[in-house]
Write the structure tokens for this entry.
Amino acid sequence: MAETRVIVVGNEKGGAGKSTIAVHLVTALLYGGAKVAVIDLDLRQSTSARFFENRRIWLESKKLELPEPLSLRLSEDDIALAEKSDEEQVAGFEAAFAKGLAECDFVLIDTPGGDTAVSRLAHGRADLIVTPMNDSFVDFDMLGHVDPVSMELTKPSLYSLTVWEARKQRALSGQRQALDWVVLRNRLATTEARNRKRLEDRLTALAKRVGFRIGPGLRDRVIYRELFPFGLTIADLSPQVRPVPVSLQHLAARQELRALMHSLGLSAYSGETLLAAQ
């Protein structure tokens, strides 16, 4: 069996679209034939964990079978665990992580919108870090600082330093393959072209400085929100699975997902077979 790959979806800023990206990556990997474990480190909100619980319940109610991941929790009561010590949270993570490594091809970890001990630990275990950001300087501020007068990049910011530490941990552990970091420009705005170009220039400069690649994210489409209550993504839609009306916009959303998988180096799981079949 090939070595299990660990994907961490991270950004210390909330509302950047981490869980949306996470559930779409998981379903694309599943349709590509991979065994996938999911660990949700947002112990209070647990968006990804709830998404896949919705999936299980909806499929049972419809008597349908679709690929499902191995959902791993840190405890039987994650909300209670959120109030406990870092040591207890780390112990729960280590147990879940070990099970995912032993049983799956991929372990995908969805992290909270903040700095926690267990999130830092997860980043240090990553082979690939995926950082979605909204297309604005509000989100960019978590990655890098700009001079308020010249608007030139001045230095990396908090989350960039977190990834830098993760890279150091990986190097010290003796792993040969470098940590791959991809920043996704998520929910791209259709207007404000001047501000978008200004942001793009600073992001490109920061990418060269701290070492990440820039990839395409997912636009702010209604379909991504419509399918959440069912635990479904656009990869699941078919003549048999159609809980909402299908439109041409859904085809564009599928193309976005395929482009996302390619940008992350996961071309084998890009869903092209699925797209051709439907």
User: Anything to note?
Assistant: Strands lie at 5-9, 36-40, 70-72, 106-110, 128-134, 144-146, 153-156, 180-186, 213-216.
